[in-house]
Amino acid sequence: MGPVRADIDSGVALITLNRSDTGNTLTAECLMALGLALDGAIRDDSVRVVLLRSNGPAFCAGMSLVDVGEAQGRHEDIGTAMSRYCDCLLTMYTCPKPVVCCVTGDVKAGGVGLVGACDIVIAAPRATFQLSEIFFGMVPANVLPFIYSLRIAPQTSRYLVLTGKTLSAQEALRIQLVNEVFPAETLEQELKTIIRALFRASPKAVARAKHFTGLLQGEKMPQSIEHAKKLFLEMVRDPETVHAINGFNEGSSPPWFARFSPQGTLICKGAL
Is the pTM for the entire model greater than 0.90? Predict the structure, then answer.
């Protein structure tokens, strides 16, 4: 059984962390497989949404401490692992398609980075989140770029790093590390509802929205306004956008509206 499984169901790329029994630790093998799965989902024109999930109660325990320990003295090995990890997070963050994460269990250390890099994060009530690196004499340096200010306020991020506090799903919702918490019995249906909404969005507009919001990070207001002017003019000159607006005024649906009718469940059996 590989560490990551990649499937496609009705336009959704299902990327499954596949070794929950061992914590879905981010080994070199796992990171390579995850990167390949993400790249495949981006290249596949039939994919409208990417869903990151796990096959059991543990979502992700972070980087493999065994790998890190064995690599001491071989800095090139550690550097390669860190680069693969950061590449995976950056791929999810910049992916032109919406990336949804469904968390049904425990998330620790580098696993928090996976969550933070996704566009939409939903969680089951039993999910927990912890930045535990401080207990091993480390700082979650590779995680923080994807949660610090983006999802979590700066001083709250510092508090979580310094204390290693374990957050419940509701606490994670309160600080916006996750977007929604749904009861286990309705989680599957709520997840489908979110994905159906994404299937009504223009793929081009989704890509533009992700790129534009990325540009705004760290920009001052005058630069942000210039970016906004440029994007607005680009959109109103786009024949696809003009066609969609005219169609809306005439009562018709845009060509990108699609039905989402999955053949299987979105949440793996045994994950809840």
Answer: yes
